Amino acid sequence: SLNCLDWSLLTPATKEMLALAEQLKGRFQGDPSFEYSLAEINAEAAARLVQSGKEPVIKEEARLIATIEQIDRAVGIVPRGAFVKTPLGSVHENRHFEGLSLVEAKKLSSYFHFTEPANLKNKTLLEKADLDPSTDFLDSLEHDIPRGSWSIQLEKGGTVVVLRSLLWLGLTFYHVPMTKQFGYVYFGTGEKNLDLPFML
Amino acid sequence: MDQSPGSDPSQEPQSAYPQNAYEGGHGPYQPHEPGYGLDQPGYSPYEDEIPDPQARMLAIKNAKAYLLKTSTKSGLNLYDHFANILTKILDEQPTNAVDIIENISKDVKWAQFRKKMDTLRDEHLIPPTFEAAEKYKALFVKEGGEDEHEELEEEMGKPSLPNVMETAFYFEQAGIGLSKDESYYIFLALKNLNNVQPIQTCRFWGKILGLEMNYIIAEVQLREGEEEEEEIGEEGEEIIAEGQKEIGQAEEEDEQKEKEPEPPKSTYKPPPDIPKEANGTGTNKYVYFVCNEPGKPWVKLPPVTPAQIVCARQIKKFFTGRLDAPVVSFPPFPGNEANYLRAQIARISAGTHVSPTGFYQFPEDEEEEEEEGADIYEENPEFEPPPVVEMVESLATWAHHVKEILKQGRCVWINLAQKSEENEEDEEEEEEEEEEQQEERGQPLLTLISEDEGMNNIPAWTAQASTNLIPEYSVAILQSNRWPGAYAFASGRKFENIYFGWGHKYNPESHTPALPPPAEAEFPSEPGITETVDPTVEEEMAFKAAQEEALAAAEEEEDEEGEDD
């Protein structure tokens, strides 16, 4: 939506959209029907599109969809214990989640990425023994590369813990310890911060 | 009947020592055998007579004494134990007490060892919220008498404390800003700063986010006279440093005159330091104070040097939140995080501080053609604010009111008359400068922002009105695309600039760090220092033989000559 009044539904992202959108650089224009010319960016993809009968352009809408998907996948986080996995494999919200304690909230390891885990299996057996399979089935933030790509701060006298991602500048996650409240929002230009390794 | 006082010996199956010796009947019963004591006169179950009262009394006393005897192992005595058991039984009145009497006895014994109340208590944990609240409470305490407050208002027409809440309100229309709580805390913290430092004008500049802690920044102009002392101190240091350099150079020259072979001196002279601008002018026009959170003490940032600005343009680093943290980068940044912060603040101010055109004007008696003189501007009392719609549509209604920073790192160009400053890399700068005769000219003050170049088809500024629904009360908002996080608003005569962000410039291409300089060239090889192979023994012998021949030949010649004469 452009004005918080009229909303349009976005389609889910496809792999091609993701691949193409990664190559687009620069700010968003603000107009969902704006067309980026692909020929400059990726001649192959443009050629493929032309062959299949479409114009060699990619619309900003697709770029938006792809960006949202990327952000969710890369830095969408939830606190530990907020979601549980049943032995059958389905994941749902934990109604008994009472929030993290203050001590736990300050540690990066109590937050998980809310996507398919990538390196759960790489942990040592010792670590695996400590895990609880119903709550620890996602990747923790501790092992994010590069290290230190999250900034964790306590605000308002310690009542709110705020995590900011440095990879996608503008992604802010908040959680009020000992309560059920948590969530993340993104306010920003929609560009990945590729300079992160230089900036740390 | 002779009643026995106190204890009732009929409670006890076994009883005190036999008073009278065994007289007859069954054999002497051992204490563990049932029937013990029954063979004694006076205790046989068939005995109904009451024996002699004196003996009975004595018997009772002895019985009680025995019962009160304390066990050596556990410190209990039988008398108390039985009393406890009976108390417990009478209190609880269990069914079939006689069957469970042994268990009851055991329980009572266990109960003796129950811990009393722990004398240690948990330390009273002070929750961090409480500590934070204490800090904020200090802000709310009104300091100083009320008289001072009134005096200040009378002296200065313009209050030195900015109205942070009003500014926050306008920015909130645009969706920018901090929460009301935090704005109010900042307001109070600025008031404290006002009371502590001799401040002429003060403004909330913005907030820069950091990894561990954030920075809240206030832009301040100190009253004149307060800064001069610092300047003198710094100049003194510079003079001393220069004096040392001169001495060093003189020594080098002396040594070179000597003819001893020495390792070759380096002909490298570092480019001379560009002097920083004086406090109160150019990049150092304002003094900045920072604190991590409102309530913490304000720290003054040191003035910025051109070298720091030049270096800050080439690196891109996150702030950690600690002012003394080192900035590890290439090219190496001269200073720590406080200096880097100050340099970024200077760049952001120079790049994004705007005001409606015409709000400031040059005083009429000065000519603006000089590059160095156009530093002063004053408010235009006849300024007519253009309507908001116009402010949004055309960028020509906004102008910079901070001087731009040249490539050199200063606002006013200085001619060092030795080398041209060609060592800096080209960046996307807003100036259109032509280096004629090594002179750098930036845009003059109060240029319109429509002159700012964009990057890659992205305009330098984005303007919007805060609302389309109520145009009478809408506010014109300006967002900088070059420094994401810099905003400005204007509504009638009021305007303000602010920054909320990470403190970095926008770069559409990725940041490429400076490459290391090429490896230094080797010292030019001369025959004097080139390595040659040592002569082998044969060569030496041959050389020696040749020398001797030459000598012999020379001697023969001399002899011949001598003979000739």
Q: What would you note in describing this structure?
A:
The complex is a heterodimer of chains A (200) and B (565). Chain A is of the alpha+beta class and 200 residues long. In chain A, helix 1 crosses helix 4. In chain A, a hairpin with a 5-residue loop joins strand 8 (160-165) and strand 9 (171-175). Chain A has seven helices and ten strands. Chain A has a four-stranded antiparallel beta sheet with strand order 7-8-9-10, with no helix packed on it. Chain B has helices at residues 53-68, 78-92, 101-111, 128-140, 146-155, 164-174, 180-196, 228-257, 306-314, 337-352, 388-393, 537-564; strands spanning 199-208, 215-222, 287-291, 299-300, 354-356, 360-361, 378-379, 398-400, 461-465, 476-480, 486-491, 494-501. Chain B has twelve helices and twelve strands. In chain B, strand 3 and strand 4 (299-300) form a beta hairpin. By secondary structure, chain B is an alpha+beta fold. In chain B, helix 2 packs across helix 3. Chain B is flat and about 165 Å long. Residues 1-25, 143-158, 227-258, 366-374 and 418-438 of chain B have low confidence and may be disordered. The A-B interface holds A 25-27, 102, 148, 151, 153-154, 156-159, 164, 166, 169, 188-189, 194-195, 198-200 and B 127-129, 131-133, 136, 181, 209-214, 315-318, 456-458, 481, 484, 502, 504, 506-511, 513. Chain A: It comes from Vidua macroura. Chain A: InterPro entries: RSP9. Chain A: It is found in: Cell projection, Kinocilium; Cytoplasm, Cytoskeleton, Flagellum axoneme.
